[in-house]
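Private note to self, pasted from the team thread so I don't lose it. Backbone tokens:
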């Protein structure tokens, strides 16, 4: 393994079942497939066409039969690896494919009853969960299936901004540059990047998402046969573990893929042994997965929010709006500081309701907050409603009672009900 960093145009020849691992530097990298066949996380590269990868992207170009690729620009690092877990990953895909075909065949006899594979990918942070999810989805889409991607990772989700849980149908292999499409996504806003802030609310939202998908599937045999791939958080201890079990249960997952964690795998096998229809499968972590420390994670969250407003290549033009305090209704869910146990009479439980809706008085504390725009028609529907999109508060004028906010477009907001959490974004 020779790591290098250079800026010229150069070619790299890859032997069969090898991959080139690339970390793009602070400037975009141009890249193309010269000959042979190769894929990036399950999506085949088009022959000879130059692709431009954005700064900081980390990816691997894998080839099953051999390929030559060409790079133009600087990389942070790039090296070739001949040891990858790709064969075991594609074997999982083959099993899922078989289950989908069987489901489709049986649904012809008994319409409405059959359900394709529901895969949940679990493991610690930086084990390659989202990458494996994307591969399984892209391989399935290549074969004509339309699986649903569910992303429960509020820390580093791949569908939309952090702090959300979301789902979207995957109708074609995921674009290696653009990532996942947002147009058809079903998004719920938790508003925090760690679940411990309000684990009960997290569960409630996971349940809402699952129920909505279940309703959509009931009228869509194609989507049901294709099944789901569910990505989870890297939080696997304590409350995190409890939330994993909750997700497995809520989505009726029937295949649990555990990446790179012996202990978690055996714990899950043990608790799920009474459910004969749930398979727990251990998979090896790829040596190419890049670890990110807390600071890098925070930065990448900020980039994600920036990307939401401005696009990956500054191709979007967000719009600054001014509204009066009384035009908008900002709600916090489970708000209000919880009374410490020590302040309560002996035996009493802290009574803050984790799903209580609190109307927030607009003040300077909201500056830089990222708010979700709810689809709710009435406040009491806010928790059970998905969201249309996000705005970011850029100024608050207490004297004139005016809020300035950034929105993706110049149009009116689809609703006046907004949800605030602890997520903030400061344009730099
Ligand atoms: P997790 O979801 O478990 O936190 P990710 O799948 O997001 O982990 O992987 C972490 C980072 O490593 C991502 O930036 C991803 O693109 C990168 N990555 C994953 N697999 C490889 C690989 N084989 N080669 C190079 N980079 C990789």
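Design output:
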């Amino acid at each position: 393994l020779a790591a290098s960093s250079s800026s010229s145009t150069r070619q790299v020849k890859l032997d069969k079942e090898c991959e080139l691992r690339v970390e793009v530097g602070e400037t975009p990298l141009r890249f193309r497939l010269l000959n042979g066949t190769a894929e990036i996380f399950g999506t085949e590269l088009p022959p000879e066409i130059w692709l431009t990868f954005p700064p900081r992207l980390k990816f691997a170009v894998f080839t099953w039969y051999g390929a030559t690729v060409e790079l133009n620009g600087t990389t942070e690092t790039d090296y070739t690896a001949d040891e990858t877990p790709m064969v075991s990953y594609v074997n999982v895909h083959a099993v899922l494919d078989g289950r989908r075909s069987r489901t489709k065949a049986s649904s012809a006899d008994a319409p409405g009853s059959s359900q394709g594979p529901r895969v949940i990918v679990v493991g610690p942070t930086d084990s390659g969960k989202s990458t494996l999810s994307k591969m399984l989805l892209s391989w399935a889409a290549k074969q004509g299936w339309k699986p649903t991607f569910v992303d429960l990772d509020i820390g580093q989700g791949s569908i939309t901004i952090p702090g959300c849980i979301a789902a979207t149908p995957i109708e074609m292999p995921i674009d290696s540059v653009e990532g996942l499409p947002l147009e058809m996504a079903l998004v719920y806003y938790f508003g925090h990047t760690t679940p411990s802030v309000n684990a009960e609310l997290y569960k409630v939202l996971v349940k809402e998402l699952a129920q909505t998908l279940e309703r959509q599937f009931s009228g869509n045999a194609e989507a049901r046969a294709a099944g789901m791939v569910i990505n989870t958080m890297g939080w696997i201890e304590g409350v995190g573990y409890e939330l994993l079990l909750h997700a497995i249960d809520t989505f009726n997952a029937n295949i649990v893929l555990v990446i790179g964690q012996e202990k978690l795998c055996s714990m899950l096998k043990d608790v799920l042994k009474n459910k004969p229809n749930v398979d727990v499968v251990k998979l090896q972590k790829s040596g190419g997965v890049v670890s990110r420390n807390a600071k890098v994670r925070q930065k990448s969250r900020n980039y994600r929010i920036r990307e939401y407003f401005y696009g990956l290549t500054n191709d979007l033009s967000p719009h600054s709006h001014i509204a009066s305090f009384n035009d908008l209704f900002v709600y916090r869910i489970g708000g209000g500081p919880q009374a410490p146990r020590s302040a309560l009479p002996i035996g009493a439980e802290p009574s803050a309701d984790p799903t209580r809706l609190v109307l927030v008085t607009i003040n300077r504390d909201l500056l830089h907050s990222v708010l979700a725009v709810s689809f709710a028609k009435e406040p009491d529907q806010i928790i059970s409603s998905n969201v249309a999109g996000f705005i970011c508060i850029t100024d608050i004028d207490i004297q004139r009672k005016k809020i300035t906010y950034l929105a993706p477009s110049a149009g009116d907001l689809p609703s006046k009900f907004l949800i605030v959490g602890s997520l903030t974004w400061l344009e730099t």
